[in-house]
Design a protein that fits this description.
Length: about 170
């Protein structure tokens, strides 16, 4: 296990009550400005659990894929950082996000330090995938990459309403 990851390389708990939905990816193209829901989500994660905003809107290609637009360029992706010492709580929170992905409009989550090569959750699978050396989301660190659907990325009010309607894990 890399980075002293406390999670063994085994399949994580499956999210409950999550339906398979189409994955938007970068189909909506480059954003002209930051999106209100994405920015609200980052502030909510910081206020509730002291996560750090490591970046939202950046017009760039995917790392390691020249010519392929990053979801960060759409304004719907956020990198949310946490401290190494908070890994256990961070995993609990990211599992909560996956479990409540339908309500929150979450389309993808990358957990870079899970096991040897990380793991990813996507709405079109409705479950986690354990990455391998040949099939992964690239290198990362102690942060989660989270992608919202276009509706929630644009509508901070709808995201706030959904967020406040769901019981959350304890504060860190």
């Amino acid at each position: 296990m890399r980075h002293g990851n406390p999670q063994p390389n085994r399949s994580p708990r499956k999210p409950v009550a999550v339906s398979k939905r189409p994955y938007t990816g970068n189909k909506d193209g480059t954003a002209k400005a930051k999106r209100a829901g994405t920015e609200w989500f980052v502030r909510a994660m910081r206020a509730r659990w002291k996560f750090r905003n490591m970046g939202t809107l950046v017009i760039r290609d995917m790392r390691g894929k020249p010519g392929v637009l990053s979801v960060h360029a759409t304004g719907r992706a956020a990198d949310i950082g946490y401290l190494v010492k908070d890994r256990k709580k961070a995993v609990e929170i990211v599992e909560w996000l996956a479990t409540n992905a339908d309500a929150l409009g979450i389309e993808a989550i990358h957990d870079y330090v899970y096991g040897d090569h990380g793991r990813g959750w996507r709405c079109d699978r409705g479950k986690w995938k354990i990455y391998t050396a040949a099939d992964n989301a690239g290198s990362g660190g102690y942060w989660f990459h989270i992608e919202l659907n276009p509706k929630m990325a644009d509508d901070a009010g709808a995201l706030s309403e959904a967020w406040h309607s769901i019981p959350k894990p304890d504060k860190a």
